[in-house]
Amino acid sequence: MKQPTVRSRSRAMAQWAVGFSLLMILAASDAPRARTPDTAPERFLKASDEPLTQYRAYRRLHARSENFGQEAWLEAWTELDPRGFSYTVVSEKGSDYIRNKVLKAVLKREQELVASGETRRSALTPDNYDFEAATQAGGEQYVGIKPKRKDTLLVDGRLVLNQDGSDLLRVEGRLSKNPSFWTSLVNVIRHYARLDGVRVPIATESVAKVKFAGLSHLEVRYEYETINGHPVSAAARQAASRFVTPEQLASAR
Prior knowledge:
11 strands; alpha+beta
């Protein structure tokens, strides 16, 4: 088997960052006001949610590459407001390469995508998706979503709704278009929670198949301080805490 050159490894890692940055912008942009046609549950269809327009959140990011045997962690304060998206790195550890070429690159790319207005391309609307009829199993409802075009900001997969179909719990699937020649598959699960009446992304988990790097993993958790200009209540913080694992809490110490 031909061994990757340093240049090939660098390019593969850079494209890993591109693919994951697309997932981050998806998590930030598709939660508010999801609209579906009549095949989706009626309560979810008629819901008129308060959109997420502003927040301040503490993020924990962890990425690892199986073939390269490297991993890294990064924690940052992130903010979205009418001026755009900004971030401040608080702590970091692990592989210098992954921290600089993946985790920091993810945040930087998200900042660029928000500034360019690209978030509209990922919204859960009939402009971007065909929605299938809902099915129910295990106390959840499932709605298949099919992108209307090949786009790195769209997911081919399904919505997971709560039991009565009134609220979004997860989006599961794969990017409908690979970010580059170097990335052949990007699977993603995005978790949501309703905090003080506003649906927000709480966690993103992804596995990407990257040339030379092999299976590459990213996990991100959000802890919100404010949402739409209001402090997050203690009850909402407690409800969201189930998405933060003991391992991630330990890594922050």
